[in-house]
Request: fold
Amino acid sequence: MATAISTAPDLAWTKKISSPQELASFRQAILASLDPNAPRIRVCCGTGCKAVGSLDVLEAMKTAVAAAGVDVHVMPEVKRTGCHGFCSRGPLLTLEPQGLFYQRVKSEDTAEIVQKTIIGGEVIPRFLYKPPGSKEAIAKVSDIPFFAKQTKLVLKRVGRIDPFDIRDAIAAGAYEGIAKVLAEMTPQQVIEEIKVSRLRGRGGAGFPTGVKWESCAGQAGRHYVICNGDEGDPGAFMDASVMEGDPHAVLEGMAIAAYAMGSDRGFLYVRMEYPLAVQTLTAAIRQAEDLGLLGQNILGTDFSFRVSVSTGAGAFVCGESSALMSSLEGKVGRPRAKYIRSTEKGFRDSPSNLNNVETYANVPEIILRGGQWYTTYGTERSTGTKVFSLTGNVHNVGLVEVPMGTSLKDIVFGIGGGVPNKKELKAVQTGGPSGGCIPIPSKFIDINVGFGKLAEIGSMMGSGGMIVMDENTCMVEISRYFINFLVEESCGQCTPCREGLTRMREILSRITQGEGREGDIELLEEIGQFTNNFSLCGLGTSAANPVLSTIRYFRDEYEAHIRDKKCPAGVCKPLYYYEIDSEKCTGCGVCRKRCPAAAIEGEKKKPHTIHQELCIKCMECYRNCKFDSIRIM
Amino acid sequence: MKIIMDGKEVAAERGQTIVEVARRNGVYIPTLCHVPALEPAAMCRVCTVELVEGRRTRLVTSCNYPLRGDAEIRTDTPMLRQNRKVLIELLASRCPDAEALKELAERYGADLNRFPAEDRQCIMCGLCARVCERVGGNVLALCGRGVEIRVDTSFGRLSPTCIGCASCVQICPVNAIRIEDMDGERRVIVRGKEASRVQLRKCTSCGIHFGPVIDLGPVLDRAGEGGVPAFNASVCPACSRRSLARRLAERHFEQHAVESPDADEEG
Reply:
């Protein structure tokens, strides 16, 4: 098996680009060397597809193309969005210039694809995508609703370029922004443009980026520009895809920020669990430095900016800005009280500007097209687009980029394709472990997703995680899961977070095991409010949100657990059992054959029964019954 | 700068923390992890107060919040009292017998037995670690994360850098750290576990052990010009006093002998 993606092409022999004009001619030269009608095969090499062997497919494809002797340029393509639910079924290919989209491709299929599609121009139906509930296969990327309904500003190059080859990125417009800034803008103008765009931090808090830059720029001392790539929310992979798929967007955004704030040093703090992002970023920095797009005297001007990648050590709390800076300094990653802002006294006690990956990735486009253009996307208070990672009980799991203010309905049903297995949608969890659960069905399905709106209903935007939950989700168990996650990830220094979370986990575990007591809900609320009020950092002050929001909207479910000792969703094992509805059961025997504990008995074509003492509650019968005859009691 | 604390205007200087202003003006704010000599860490959170800035009210910890402009502070609202009560109840499960908590429990009506006790003998105020960094040999630190966090030495081993100053013993509000001087060695024991062992200095005169043998370099560096001469002594304080007294007496008699030739007769 191939272990590494082709390493960066060596550009050290290339002359450094010494002016913005030279960058433009360099781009023209690359574009001129490309034939727009030449066939190109893009193999998705994102983490998801890599896991199912896309690197092997890439190698096999190269071999197949070489054997066939056609003139085609194979490039590895990182396309996280391409994973929309099919990651588990195999690597993805896109074929240019036809714009074909192939899924479930195996290494042994490559020769056939080269022969039939590339040479013969024929579409192979078995690789095509079929939307849920439709018999019609879709051949083109642009016709697939999942892609058609998105607006890609941040992800525009992700999946289209080879992240390990800067020439590809330059051809697609990378570094045009920094060239414009260096040629014709003053630092004040850059900040002004960002303020006009009303861009808000994408890390979760939504602080206006321009205001932050301005306050940092106004401070005396050496300035640092830091990028937060420590994306740790369960189920979130937006920043990973940007760093892996288009590292230059982030680097260019950081360089522009550095210019605006008079900084010459930047750091990318990337979590250790993203090895591919570290590879792509490191390669991208080296190539950009080789070409004079980063490092000393960028594009022949006086502006210098050196960036390096620093990896985290696996702590969720290091995504918090002060803990991140502490970790970057080599200390223990524990947050400090931010009564003096990082923009004043942050990394190494110097003015430091910290933004999220997605925030920086937005910057070059705003500079190129103007802040005013950016405000045409999104709503009045939340401009631009947001990348969400749509996961959970939804057909098209993947990354979606939509304008702010898009309704939940459009995201979950329009792009996500709705809930699989004919289940009811129960809730959507947003904002990671610090966010809340939005109950659906209710008026909230039409809520416009933006910074203000989500906070109003007790959840938050967070970094963009979005977990869809169907009717078989127990909300008590969900809140126990998140609290358990946070107990392990709390830094432990402040009392409310450390002690409060421990107690809440204890109470929630008790409830899910059927040992809930009268007064537990009130106790959870009391501790939860205390934790949110008195904690030191953002992790603590939002840690109780999963509990408080589920109590707020699903109180009856908590009560069912505590008073009736029942888990209505059928998740908490001691609190439910399965029963076969003898009127609906046709005696097909599927459940009997499927049951791993041999707990189901019954004659053919006669209603079956479950022996409760044998049942291990694995859900196998429930999931496989075609007649809906197995009920959760 | 106009600072209003609990409805009364109080004297304050720019940059002072809320707790400094409160102490100076006789306003009570509870603290567990704060001593004025050390950098505030804001870990125990019991000193949280309400800060009204214009139209919004924020909760801030008074030990480390620097006042930089006009502000109104409320130190004892029902909301604060309620949250402090829960805080003390939660902490009490770690350290049920701590006197410091009993006092606060009485003040805020907290039930020390509300949560099941797990006697960890430590309220995680971190004072020992902070004082050890400033005064001692940087031996004790907060190790681990989340619920696992604890005061310990590096890798839980006997520390070779301890200077045996016992600052940690002095500062611990729940008496979880003690020292034992035995067989010419000083042991620092943190929650029943030995953290370090320092050799004791033996008095060249009477033979008792009287203080730790330490590497003076770093201590003198920190103490600055003048240093701490007592650390160089080779005799114990008792013998030192005794020998001083003897020298004084000898000198007295010598002087007497010179002044009056018939001193011997008088003596």
In short: Chain B has three domains: 3-108, 127-228, 236-267. Residues 236-267 of chain B form one domain. The radius of gyration of chain B is 25 Å.
